[in-house]
Task: inverse folding
């Protein structure tokens, strides 16, 4: 295992499933198990799968200045949130470039809970909190289990009264198997799913019980890399693997605009005053590339870093790819020149394989988001 300064209480369970616990975000994370990733992908798309995503940074912001702190830092208008509501948001630097994404939960009048990705959002907020009436508590005792897939609701509804009524991007404080939890109707798979926040001392019992009682629904443990397959189909970005930190432009500092990443929807209509707001507005129409889909010929997956070509010129790079045995399609996310980011544009893939492809609109799977937002 790589050096990690954070620890999941489920480490021994992951090792028993064949994981070497590679580092992600400072925590030993089960990137792979001995089982096949294709089986895990199929489980989440057709039944349900359970993942440990405790490597996300989980932080409480509490106090009379917490709302103002978050209002200045994130692109969403957090004043519109009420206790029990959450929202996906992004954070920018002073150049209007993406630095982190997060989910912001309102848990009380002056209480907030933010789940940060692998960017610098937590550090950014900690710095600006100095001198304000806000407490910042990094909470690694809190573990996060993600139960995702079409049957996740059927399973949890048996154990949590009223669970079927929990709407997309809402959360409740409740009990699961007699243990205190917060359950959020969120996820990173493009499927209907739930994230379960629990105390470290309860995480093992909850993990074991879900897998034991979930046998009739076909619930299986899924390794972290399964998310790469799901996110390609569902247009979910993963910092820094889709960003210029990994694929820099010559003579330019790393950083991508929300317009380039397709994340401009995370800016609440009419909101100004957040960090980088003026530069964000100025960058509209100045995109150097677009995140776009690529549909490859054949039944082999491309590799990260494979290049895309049109008329002999290099026009893009693949950032994440997968082959789905469920749909029989080889798909990828790519950073593609703006003029070639048009559905149907012919492309050639070069690198780990040589094959034809076309530019394809995103997402590949469930473009209306009907699955993740379903009710009942």
Result:
């Amino acid at each position: 295992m790589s050096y990690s300064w954070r620890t999941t209480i489920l480490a021994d369970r992951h090792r028993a499933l064949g994981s070497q616990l590679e580092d992600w975000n400072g925590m030993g994370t089960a990137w792979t198990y001995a089982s096949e990733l294709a089986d895990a992908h199929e489980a989440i798309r057709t039944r349900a799968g359970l993942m440990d995503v405790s490597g996300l940074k989980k932080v409480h912001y509490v106090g009379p200045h917490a709302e103002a702190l978050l209002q200045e830092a994130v692109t969403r208008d957090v004043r519109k949130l009420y206790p029990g509501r959450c929202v996906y948001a992004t954070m920018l630097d002073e150049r209007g470039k993406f630095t982190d994404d997060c989910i912001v939960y309102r848990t009380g009048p002056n209480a907030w809970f933010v789940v940060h990705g692998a960017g610098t959002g937590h550090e950014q907020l900690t710095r600006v909190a100095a001198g304000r009436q806000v407490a910042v508590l990094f909470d690694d005792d809190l573990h996060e289990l993600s139960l995702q897939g079409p049957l996740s609701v059927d399973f949890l509804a048996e154990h949590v009264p009223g669970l079927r009524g929990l709407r997309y991007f809402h959360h409740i404080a409740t009990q699961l198997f007699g243990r205190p939890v917060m359950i959020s109707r969120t996820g990173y798979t493009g499927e209907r799913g739930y994230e379960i926040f629990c105390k470290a001392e309860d995480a093992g019992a909850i993990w074991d019980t879900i897998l034991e009682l979930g046998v009739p629904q076909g619930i299986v443990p899924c390794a972290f890399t399964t998310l790469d397959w799901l996110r390609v189909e569902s247009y979910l970005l993963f910092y820094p693997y889709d960003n210029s930190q990994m694929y820099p432009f010559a003579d330019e500092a790393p950083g991508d605009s929300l317009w380039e990443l397709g994340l401009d929807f995370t800016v609440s209509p009419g909101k100004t005053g957040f960090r980088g707001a003026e530069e964000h507005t100025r960058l509209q129409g100045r995109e150097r590339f677009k995140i776009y889909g690529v549909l490859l010929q054949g039944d082999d997956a491309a590799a990260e870093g494979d290049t895309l070509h049109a008329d002999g010129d290099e026009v893009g790079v693949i950032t994440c790819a997968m082959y789905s045995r469920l749909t029989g399609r080889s798909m990828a996310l790519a950073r593609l020149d703006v003029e070639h980011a048009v559905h149907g544009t012919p492309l050639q893939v070069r690198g780990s394989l040589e094959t034809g492809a076309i530019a394809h609109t995103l997402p590949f799977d469930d473009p209306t988001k009907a699955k993740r937002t379903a009710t009942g």
